[in-house]
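Repro:
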Amino acid sequence: MLQEIEDACNLMLRPQPPGPVVRSRTLRWQERLPLTAPLLSCREPLLALRRQLAGLMADAEAMGRCWLQHAKLCRSTGHQEAAETSVLEAHARAVPGSLLERCRLLWERDKGHRAVMELQLAVQQMLDGDAQPEDAALQHQRAKEMLQLTEWMAAVGQGHKDMLRANYEDAIQLDGSWEKAHFSYAVYLDSLYRDAKLREGKPATSKGMDRLSGRSRVRTPDDSPMDYLPQALEHYGESIRVGHKHILQSLPRLLTLYFEFGSKLAASKTLNQKLRNTHTQVAGVMRGLLRTIPTYKWLLVLPQLTSRICHPQQDVQDFMQQLLGAIADHFPQQALWAMATVCKSSEAASSILNQAKRRSGESGRALFESFARLSDQLIRACMWQPPGERRVSRCSAFKEFKHLVGMLPVDVQVPVQALFTVDLPPGGKLPPGHRPVCGQATILGMRDEVTVMSSLMKPKKITFIGSDGLDYPFLAKPKDDLRKDYRLMDFAGTLNALLARQPQARRRGLCLRTYAVLPLTDDCGILQWVEHLVPFKAACEEALAKERLYIRHSTPHQIKKMYDGFAGSSRAQLLDRVLQGLPPRLGKWLLSRFPEPGAWLAARLAFTRTNAAWAMVGHVLGLGDRHGDNIMIHGLTGETMHVDFGCLFDKGLTLEVPEMVPFRLTQNVVDAFGVSGVEGAFRRAAEMTLQVLRDNKATLMTCAETFLHDPLVDWARGSKGGASAAAAGPEAENPQAKDALCVMEGRLSGTLLGVAAIPSLPLSCEGQAARLIEEASDHENLGKMYIWWMPWL
């Protein structure tokens, strides 16, 4: 703020008043404001100062823009009265955009009809006026008004679809480089496509069911889904090409529509003329997008691409091979790690990597060969078991994995989470020098000490030495299909990006802590090791043991005897008897870990909010097996992190002792929330997470569809031929996966409640969260849980 005062004073002290261009370049108000936090408490003082400075410089236009920015800020934070006052000030100074902001305020105050009427009048005056203005900013403002009017008319059902489509096209014509115009038009076309698809699937009404005996002159529209598909794909693609604000919604949906159309072609024995014409148009659109969309943007959907690599339709296969080949050419490190599993079971994936290897130079071929050897040696390291029946806690990498150690160093980059994170540049275009993917250190060597875990499968902690001198620990896990973990981390990454775009969720820091998961085969892989994690079970036992309320080796067995000897009918009574001797103590454990008051408050809030986010996401995905060793607490921040996602899609209901709670909300979890318990921060964060999940249901369902087409071991074993047959052959659908996705969609809609997915009328986010909290904390449900899930902790 002091800098802005100094800049304004220097301008006012000049002998000649500067023009608007010089003033704008000197003050740089438009560039500075986006760099501040989008909070009312942060931006309101700055905008108030700017209004005063603009008044001193006699710049009425700049003052009006500040009033308009303040109105937008107040509206986005729910302060509608302040927003209305500010927009009137901006409107009095004839600031472009003030009318649109006033109409948006009317719309949010449930005065939609008046908002549409006023904006429609303004747009009509614009259309009746002169030709398009030469000023690009004014032309963009007109496009915004036209687009907003069309979206509102579509929302209230005002206007025929042909008129609405013409309005969308007019908005695009006003500003063809505006991402939102293309995206909104694509979403509208997509809705028409889905509606026509539903009507196409309904059988024609028989004469016996026609109450008018065929005399009705009103007919259902005879449009076909194919009338809208090519244009929907085209405008989704254009929105991706010119920007990335909506790329998380548009890019997955673009691929889903294309893959669905390809499946329709593959399933059709004969193609009629309309289908052939649509096929030609769609193929042309996708070929064009392959040329025009930058390759780095496709990295965002790399998991979705690899899951559909065995698509049955030939054109889709060709498209996938070209696209994945381009990714392998430009980003070989990411492509190699992402396709490590499928290239061992799919000829198409192997062919793509082999062709990319031939196209690369000598150094590129060396990278592909090094990665193949490294992958084989990592698989051997994962599968290694201590000889005999000896219990080994440590072993030597130089002795047991000498072939792996001997091939190092290699030019393969360390597969940490940052390697797969795409940094989208501001403005949607790649500026010179910007790197969309940060280059990571390569694997220089390996530490000799390998820690062997005591669990049944004997996973091992191995540590790579990076070329930057840092250690990078990983967990080599055998006899476990990590593809579910890989897909869930992709789902969590997408959700984190969506949470970051929601102002209230961003202010609360709602997110899911993720880590890199690298499946190497269908039954082994490596996971990025996250330091400073404490298992929830260990934290509770430590806190209870300090007060001599719990002995690790004897207390659980005493509780088991109580369970075995209980003859009553109410499991809640049994749990209450156990809890009498084990009071909640996790809150004290947090206090001992974070003794400084500010750090303790931040850790408690982080624990509460991350628990709420994981609880809602876990319920939607049907995540089970949340025992005390699968929930981790970060020792430096207090955040919770979940591991081991093998029990997805309500698999807990099929266990010998079915899981009766949607997520873990036991007494120690609630104790760590503080004096308010589940009220306050936890409930609000849960409702907010549910709201973001619902608002982005289409995007998240598209992301979750990778589960449907990925040949997961657990589902493939139920069919003849096993997992290897499912993975090696052409793409096949999993009926169980389809059912799981239907349940997920119902939970996102609020129509399927609780663990058992009981059908219900749609609930609000608040009602659904309240129902889930009640079910998760019910002592009768907790008492029915498997004893070693330890519901008393």
